[in-house]
TrEMBL record:
UniProt name for this protein: DUF1491 family protein
Pfam families attached to this UniProt entry: DUF1491
Stored InterPro entries: DUF1491
Length: 113
């Protein structure tokens, strides 16, 4: 099954957050068809988390996007620094920022072994 384009996925994700009453904004637009998507969750308590594409070994044939924790419970500045490092390698990445005290992100996370 073909994977959903990044621009469509991000649009649907932003809508999902809105339906759930969670504020989410697109901070950086990447490549429309296949840009990697990163999601920063600001916990609004001085901590943040970053989720990014799961390693390929966790990806199956379903076409669903799976995510993995990149950083968790760190300062928002730590997340920004990591995103800047990622941008040096992949200028086509997308960045969505979610603000939620409960840390809700609505992402499908890859199972950890």
């Amino acid at each position: 099954m073909a994977r959903l384009r990044s621009d469509f996925w991000v649009s649907a994700y932003l809508r999902r957050c809105g339906v759930e009453g969670v504020e989410a904004v697109l901070r950086r637009r990447g490549a429309a068809e296949a840009g990697a998507i990163f999601v920063k969750v600001d916990h609004l308590d001085g901590t943040a988390s970053l989720y990014g594409p799961a390693p390929q070994l966790f990806v199956d044939d379903s076409g669903e996007r799976l995510f993995a924790v990149v950083l968790q419970g760190v300062t928002p500045l730590d997340v920004e620094e990591k995103v800047q490092r990622e941008l040096r390698f992949d200028t086509d990445l997308w960045l969505v920022e979610v603000d939620d005290r409960e840390g809700r992100h609505f992402l499908d996370l890859a199972a950890e072994e």
